[in-house]
Design brief:
The structure holds three protein chains of three kinds.
Chain A: H1 2-29, H2 38-44, H3 47-74, H4 77-109, H5 117-137, H6 142-168, H7 189-228
Helix pairs in contact in A: 1-7, 2-4, 3-4, 3-6, 3-7, 4-5, 4-7, 5-6
Chain B: E1 10-19, E2 22-32, E3 37-41, H1 48-55, E4 63-68, E5 71-72, H2 73-81, E6 84-87, H3 99-109, H4 115-125, H5 141-153, E7 159-163, H6 171-184, E8 221-225, H7 229-235, E9 238-243, E10 246-252, H8 258-270
Parallel strand pairs in B: 3-8, 3-9, 6-7, 7-8
Antiparallel strand pairs in B: 1-2, 1-4, 4-5, 9-10
Helix pairs in contact in B: 3-4, 4-5
Chain C: H1 2-21, H2 23-43, H3 50-79, H4 82-88, H5 93-123, H6 130-154, H7 163-171, H8 173-187, H9 196-221
Helix pairs in contact in C: 1-5, 2-3, 2-5, 3-5, 3-6, 3-8, 5-6, 5-9, 6-7, 6-8, 6-9, 8-9
Classes of the chains: A mainly alpha, B alpha/beta, C mainly alpha.
């Protein structure tokens, strides 16, 4: 256990360093975007935070679905723990992506928010997982709660691509990062972007590990409470 | 379904059920032989209803195993359900349907080939033939429970599970239930007068007989939860007292008198509050 | 075969009970009608033509009424404990799913079939056509397919029926979206063939989630 702790601390330190470095690269070292107004140019640097946040939120919800399927298949509570923890972090990243997107949107589109399709889909995703937690909150029996949450987690994640496509067939003003051939990023930006992506991924892993640990402690406390008869 | 001779009809091993931090059943071990009837007594909160719910596959155990007819309930639930009849204090019937429609629905669910005659026989047996076309909503509590019994028996199950079936019944309905159970358990109720024999044409056919009037050779296996010590003792081969999620007493009723049972009950179950 | 017999028995039972009380249908229909009328008040003086908002109004009314109907589908089982009766029978859990899905679908379609002519009259729109009915059928099916699972869940929570819209609405967005799009396009006089993409989307949704529901419903109803 001590070795795990040390490993976790070390990894946390690496993750923190990674994020700081990514911030430095993004804000200072990355090349300027061409052809934009001065305000927009600086705001464009958000791409190094905004996009990884968004991707990682989806990764997190994907892990939730994995946990959900794992729980239904095995009946072991740790899969449910995984689903729960990852969903929490997913919501955090979703909010981060939305906030950073807003900060970018104001100089770029002159509005904090629009109801363009990609944002709309993302809002639906946020609502999906808020509902996930409302469902969990409304259940008292742990086994049944885990089972219901697992079923909902599966439905929720599977609905995302369909929701995305349904909304995509509407007009969109959201810049498309991945066109058929090229990146929306110039050469110089790519290393910074991928570094940032890696740093955020590590951040996700760290947060997940810490949260899982917290969840396990929580359950241990519950177990002790049972034994003592509270 | 009964498996090899000597296989118990019901076998519970280390059965545990917990609802979060609340443990309802703690490591129950129990076997019931085919044709045996068991009365389960115990104070409220002892875990009796949980036990019945697990036996009838409505609830999954937290740990431990349940075998019915030699088959594991966790894997053969569908096959086993066909042979279970359940009467609980909730009637499991539909208010907005008539008595006959209710029975027809369940006959369909159980995929019974000869639904019509069966329904008629059942209605007659529980004395509801005259009310077959009336909505269940208009029934008294006693009538509802009688119909619930008809529903539980319509598919001729080998195993009967009852959870306080006489709750809220008037004396006449309770008596009828009592006789029915005595018959199903294959014995005369202790202390009661013998049932008239079948040569009297006015008597309804015993439910133990199949539709052609041949009587069923073996008695049903019955597990009945009840608060009524006297009635339970009268029809059971074994008496079990459940307290705090554990079996406090498991004894044959052959030489067990009512006063003795009452004393044992007070001793084992009285202190659990 | 016994599977479909059980499904049929459940649908028959729900229809029979509903014919007697008319609880579900009447509350759904009145609610849908009220929704339409309220939206009429909400928009009438601000939009140049009601034709613009009619598709949205129709689908919102369907959503709200449908939620009501789906809730009732399982509340009636829960109140009397009769769900246990269904679970005790030797039928596949998914037969219970399909039975409930089909009876809910039936009630919803009935409401829609009566609502549509009324909308036509109230808003003076040529909204009635077989193409519209196809759109309604596919959309309502998708809604009910997912809603049946969530209703079975919601009824077993502390929040009970209140939870169903919270769970359901984000997941059925594609269906509502496609429904509104297609209803609008048909109202505008576009031929059915141009709606290929949307139809495909609805079909994928309907089939896909029916499969997911089939696989997961058992977990929801067992204790």
């Amino acid at each position: 256990m001590a070795r795990n702790d040390r490993g976790l601390t070390a990894l946390t330190a690496v993750a923190a360093a990674g994020i700081l470095l990514a911030a430095a690269f993004a804000l200072i070292l990355a090349p300027r975007a061409a052809g934009l107004t001065p305000n927009e140019t600086f705001a464009q640097r958000i791409i190094y935070f905004h996009v990884p946040s968004a991707w990682l939120s989806m990764l997190a919800f994907g892990v939730t679905m994995v946990g959900s399927i794992g729980y239904l298949a095995s009946g072991q509570r740790r899969w449910d723990g995984l689903a729960l923890c990852s969903a929490e972090i997913g919501i955090a990243f979703t909010l981060a992506a939305m906030a950073s997107g807003s900060v970018w949107a104001k100089p770029a589109w002159n509005a904090w928010w629009t109801w363009d399709p990609r944002l709309t889909t993302y809002t639906v995703v946020l609502l999906l997982y808020i509902s996930y937690f409302m469902l969990r909150d409304a259940m008292d029996d742990p086994a049944r709660r885990a089972r219901f949450a697992a079923v909902y987690g599966i439905f929720a994640f599977l609905s995302v691509p369909i929701t995305f496509f349904s909304i995509r067939w509407w007009r969109t003003i959201h810049p498309v990062l991945f066109d058929a051939k090229n990146f929306g990023l110039s050469h110089g930006m790519r290393p910074v972007f991928f570094f940032s992506l890696a740093a955020f991924t590590l951040l996700y892993v760290i947060l997940l590990l810490h949260r899982l640990r917290l969840e396990r402690s929580k359950e241990a406390v519950e177990g002790l409470r049972e034994q003592l008869g509270y | 379904m009964t498996g090899a001779a000597g296989t118990p009809m019901i076998a519970l091993r280390k059965l545990t059920k917990a609802f979060g931090s609340k443990v309802a059943l703690r490591g129950i071990d129990l076997t019931v032989a085919p044709g045996e009837s068991v009365a389960v007594f115990g104070p409220n909160g002892a875990g009796k209803t949980t036990l019945i719910r697990i036996l009838c596959s409505l609830s999954r155990p937290t740990s431990g195993s349940v075998h019915i007819g030699g088959l594991a309930l966790s894997t053969h639930a569908d096959g086993i359900r066909r042979h279970l009849g359940v009467v609980s204090h909730a009637p499991l019937l539909y208010d907005s349907l008539t008595a006959e429609e209710n029975l027809r629905f369940f006959a369909r669910l159980y995929n019974l080939p000869d639904a019509g005659p069966r329904i008629n026989a059942m209605l007659e047996r529980v004395g509801l033939t005259g009310r077959r076309g009336d909505l269940v909503r208009t029934f008294s509590r006693g009538m509802v429970q009688r119909l619930a019994i008809a529903r539980a028996l319509i598919h001729d199950p080998e195993v009967l599970l009852l959870d306080e079936p006489d709750t809220g019944l008037d004396p006449q309905a309770a008596e009828m239930l009592h006789r029915l159970l005595a018959e199903l358990s294959g014995r005369q109720p202790r202390g009661a007068t013998a049932l008239p024999d079948n040569s009297n044409a006015a008597q309804p056919p015993p439910v133990g007989a199949d539709l052609r009037g041949r009587s069923r050779p073996t008695a049903r296996t019955i597990v009945m939860v009840t608060h009524n010590l006297e009635r339970g003792l009268a029809i059971a081969d074994r008496a079990i007292i459940l307290a705090n999620g554990r079996i406090a007493l498991d004894a044959s009723t052959r030489d067990l008198g009512l006063t003795e049972l009452r004393a044992l009950y007070d001793r084992h179950a009285g202190g659990s509050r | 075969m016994t599977f479909w017999r059980a499904v049929g028995a459940i649908v028959w039972k729900d229809v029979r009970a509903e014919l007697r009380t008319k609880d579900i249908f009447s509350s759904m229909f009145v609610f849908a009608l009220l929704a339409v009328i309220i939206f009429d008040f909400a928009f009438e003086l601000r939009v140049p033509s009601m034709k613009m908002v009619a598709p949205g109004i129709v689908w919102v009314a369907i959503t709200f009424a449908g939620t009501l109907g789906l809730n009732r589908a399982f509340v009636i089982e829960q109140d009397k404990g009769s769900m246990a009766g269904l679970l005790l029978a030797p039928v596949d859990r998914s037969a219970i799913y399909f039975g409930k899905l089909l009876s809910s679908l039936l009630f919803m379609l009935l409401v829609e079939v009566i609502l549509l002519p009324l909308v036509m009259i109230l808003f003076n729109l040529a909204i009635l056509s077989w193409q519209q009915l196809v759109v309604l059928l596919l959309g309502t099916y998708g809604f009910a397919a997912v809603g049946t699972v969530f209703s079975a869940m919601a009824v077993n929570t502390r929040a009970r029926e209140v939870l169903l819209p919270l769970l359901l609405f984000p997941v059925v967005v594609p269906v509502i979206l496609a429904g509104v799009k297609m209803t609008g396009a048909l109202l505008d006089g576009e031929p059915f063939s141009t709606l290929g993409n949307w139809l495909r989307l609805m079909l994928v949704y309907d089939v896909g989630f029916t499969v997911v529901a089939y696989l997961t419903f058992g977990y929801v109803v067992e204790e």
